[in-house]
Amino acid sequence: VSSFRAICAKGAFLQGFLTNITNVKAFLFLTSFIASGLRDDSSAERKWLLVGIIIGQALIGWSLFLWLLQRPILRNAYVKLERPLNGLFGVLLLIIASQMAVAAFQK
After folding, report:
1. How far apart, in whole angstroms, are the C-alpha atoms of residue 7 and residue 4?
2. 7 near 15, Cβ under 8 Å?
3. H/E/C letters for each residue in 21-75?
């Protein structure tokens, strides 16, 4: 029997935020992504543009994802396919990481 306690929206946001900023995998991925997009001679505008893209993608992408999950048919499909989707995205991230590592060693 699972039990949980209801939390307010602010508490849920804070819990999710803390979980995400302490996620080592996400930190390493974002760090490597940012490093791959910047060079020693990158301008301040390019750096701020990259930060803006990451923040904008996160806000728009996650907002859209959560909005879609509010639809029962999509939520049920997601729950049913959660394991295979997680595996697929894990493989895709490994491919991206491998390509980034190869590119870093070729420089």
Report:
1. 9
2. yes
3. HCCHHHHHHHHHHHHHHCCCCCCHHHHHHHHHHHHHHHHHHHHHHHHHHCCHHHH
pLDDT tens for each residue of 8-25: 888 888 888 888 778 877
Q: Which of 69, 94, 63 is nearest to 81 (CA)?
A: 69
Q: How far apart are CA 107 and CA 101, in angstroms?
A: 10
For 1, 28, 63, 65, the CA distances from 21, given in Å and listed in that order, are: 30, 11, 18, 19
CA 8/CA 62 separation, integer angstroms:
19
Express each pLDDT in 27-84 by its tens digit.
777 777 777 777 778 788 888 888 888 888 888 988 898 899 899 999 999 999 999 9
Distances (CA, A) of 33 to 50, 96, 100: 10, 10, 9
